[in-house]
Specification:
This protein has 20 helices and 6 strands. The chain is mainly α.
Length: 463
C-alpha cells in the first residue's frame, strides 16, 4: 500500500478489489475524455479513431515502459497548429498528409530515445534540475487553465457544482467516494446540466450501438493507396516534424511531474529512453491510422495527485475502456453532448493539481530562492510560457526554409529556462526528480521509493 512518507498512497490497487479498480479506471478515462475528443473536433479527425488509439497507444506505452509508469496517453494539442497549416478548416483530403507529418515527428522521439539509451539519462537531466522542471510543470497547468475557464463560462453554476462535488468528496467523503471524486463530479454535474435542459440527447438517440472506429480513407495507408502527392507530403513533413522538439520537452516535464506525484524516479527506471520510445511509437501508430498524436496527459496526473492511487494497472484499465467504447457510437455521442461547463469545472481542479505538483517539486528539492539566478530562471520560464500562450498570437513564429513554424509558449519558456540555468553563474547541484544526486552517467535510484534526505542508496543505471 503506502509508504511512511505517504501512508495514503496505493501502489497496488489489487488490494482494493476488482470492482474498485474498474471504477478507478473509469475515472481516469473520464478525466482525459474532454481534452482528448476536443483535438479531433478542432482538427476534423474522427473522434472514435482518436479514442481507439488513445487506448491502444496507452497500452503500447505501458508495454515499452515495462508497465511501471501510471501515465495515460491522449490527444496532443501541440500539433493543432500543424494540422491547421497543412489542412485548413479540416479539409478531409489534406488531413492524411498532416497525419503523415505527425508520424514523422514521432520518429524524432525514437531518435532521441536511442541517444538517451546510448549516453544515459543523467547527461540529459543535467539540463533539467528542479529549478527548471518545477516551473515547467507549473506552467503546464497554468497554460491549460484558460481552456477550463472558457468551458466554465458556458454555465458557471454547473461548473462550480462540479468543483464543489469534487472538493466535498475528496475532503469529507468516506470509503470509495473519497477516492473517485472526479468520476462523481462528472456524473453529478452532467445530471444537473441535463435537469437544467442544457443537454440535447438527440445525437445519442440517433447513434447506433456498434460501429467501426476506423475510416480507411482518412488514414495514411488509404492516402498511399489512392496516390500520394509528393509535394504536399514533403510540405507537411517539413512543417510538422519540428514541432516534436516542443512535445519532447513537454514529455520530460510530464515524466518529472508524474515522478514527483508518485514519489518514484521514472526518469531512472524504466528510463527516459523507454518512455520517449513508448510515446513516439504510440504517436506514429495513431497518426498512420488517422488519429491525433499521443502525449502523456496532465489530466490523469491530476487524478493521481488527487486520489493517491498510483498503480499503473488502473491506467491500463482506463485504456481498455477507451478501446471498448470507441466501438460504441452511442457512447461517443453521449460524451460529445456533455456540456462544456461540466468538463470545465472538472478541468479547473485537474489543471490546478498539475501546477501544485510543480510547486511541490520545488519545495521537496529545496530549491534556494534566495539565489537571484533561481528566481530569474523560474520567473522567465513561467512568464514566457504563460504569457505567450495567452497572447494574441498564441505562439512565436519561426521561419525555417520559407516555412513558418509556431513555437508554443511552453516550448519557448522551457528552452530559455534550460539555457539560462546553464549559462548563469551558481549552477545548482544536479539532482534527480526525487532529490537523489547524479553522479557519473547514472541517476541514482531504481524507480522505487527513495528518501529525499539521509544516506544515499546504491547507484543503479537506467536500462
Amino acid at each position: 500500500m503506502g509508504s511512511k512518507d505517504n501512508p495514503e498512497a496505493v501502489y497496488d490497487a489489487r488490494s482494493l478489489g476488482a470492482p474498485k479498480m474498474l471504477l478507478f479506471g473509469l475515472q481516469h478515462m473520464f478525466a482525459m475524455f474532454g481534452a482528448t475528443i476536443l483535438v479531433p473536433i478542432l482538427t476534423g479527425l474522427p473522434v472514435s479513431t482518436t479514442l481507439l488509439f488513445a487506448g491502444l497507444g496507452t497500452l503500447l506505452f505501458h508495454v515499452v515502459s515495462k508497465g511501471k509508469v501510471p501515465a495515460f496517453l491522449g490527444s496532443s494539442f501541440a500539433f493543432i497548429a500543424g494540422y491547421a497549416a497543412v489542412a485548413p478548416n479540416g479539409a478531409p483530403e489534406l488531413l492524411p498528409y498532416a497525419c503523415l507529418g505527425v508520424a514523422c515527428a514521432g520518429v524524432l522521439y525514437l531518435v532521441l530515445s536511442a541517444l538517451f539509451r546510448a549516453f544515459g539519462a543523467a547527461r540529459v537531466m543535467r539540463f533539467f534540475p528542479p529549478v527548471v522542471t518545477g516551473p515547467i510543470v507549473i506552467a503546464i497547468g497554468l497554460s491549460l487553465s484558460s481552456s477550463a475557464i472558457n468551458n466554465c463560462q458556458t454555465n458557471w453554476l454547473v461548473a462550480v457544482f462540479a468543483i464543489a462535488v469534487i472538493v466535498v468528496c475528496n475532503i469529507w467523503g468516506r470509503g470509495m467516494i473519497k477516492i473517485i471524486p472526479i468520476l462523481v463530479g462528472v456524473i453529478s454535474a452532467y445530471v444537473l446540466a441535463a435537469i437544467m435542459g442544457l443537454v440535447d440527447f438527440t445525437p445519442v438517440a440517433d447513434a447506433p450501438w456498434l460501429g467501426l472506429p476506423l475510416v480507411w480513407d482518412r488514414t495514411v495507408f488509404g492516402l498511399a493507396a489512392s496516390g500520394l502527392d509528393v509535394g504536399i507530403a514533403l510540405t507537411a513533413i517539413i512543417t510538422i516534424t519540428p514541432l516534436a522538439f516542443a512535445t519532447i520537452i513537454e514529455h520530460i516535464g510530464d515524466m518529472s511531474a508524474i515522478s514527483s506525484t508518485v514519489n518514484r524516479n521514472y526518469i531512472a527506471s524504466p528510463g527516459l529512453h523507454r518512455t520517449l520510445l513508448g510515446d513516439g511509437l504510440a504517436t506514429i501508430v495513431a497518426s498512420l491510422f488517422g488519429a491525433p498524436a499521443n502525449t502523456t496527459y496532465g489530466e490523469n496526473t491530476g487524478v493521481l495527485a488527487l486520489t493517491k492511487v498510483f498503480d499503473p494497472r488502473v491506467v491500463r484499465i482506463a485504456a481498455v475502456f477507451a478501446v471498448l467504447f470507441s466501438f460504441c457510437p452511442k457512447f461517443i455521442a453521449l460524451i460529445e453532448v456533455m456540456p462544456a461547463c461540466v468538463v470545465g469545472g472538472v478541468s479547473i481542479v485537474l489543471y490546478g493539481m498539475i501546477s501544485a505538483v510543480g510547486i511541490r517539486n520545488l519545495v521537496e528539492n529545496k530549491v534556494d530562492f534566495l539565489k537571484s539566478r533561481n528566481v530569474i530562471v523560474t520567473a522567465l520560464i513561467i512568464g514566457l510560457a504563460v504569457g505567450i500562450t495567452y497572447s494574441a498570437a498564441g505562439s512565436i513564429p519561426l521561419n525555417v526554409g520559407g516555412v513558418t513554424i509556431g513555437l508554443s509558449g511552453l516550448a519557448i519558456g522551457s528552452i530559455v529556462g534550460i539555457v539560462l540555468n546553464i549559462v548563469l553563474p551558481g549552477h545548482e547541484d544536479v539532482v534527480g526528480v526525487d532529490g537523489s544526486r547524479v553522479e557519473g552517467d547514472a541517476i541514482e535510484g531504481d524507480g522505487e521509493l527513495l528518501p529525499l534526505e539521509g544516506p544515499r542508496p546504491a547507484s543503479a543505471s537506467s536500462e
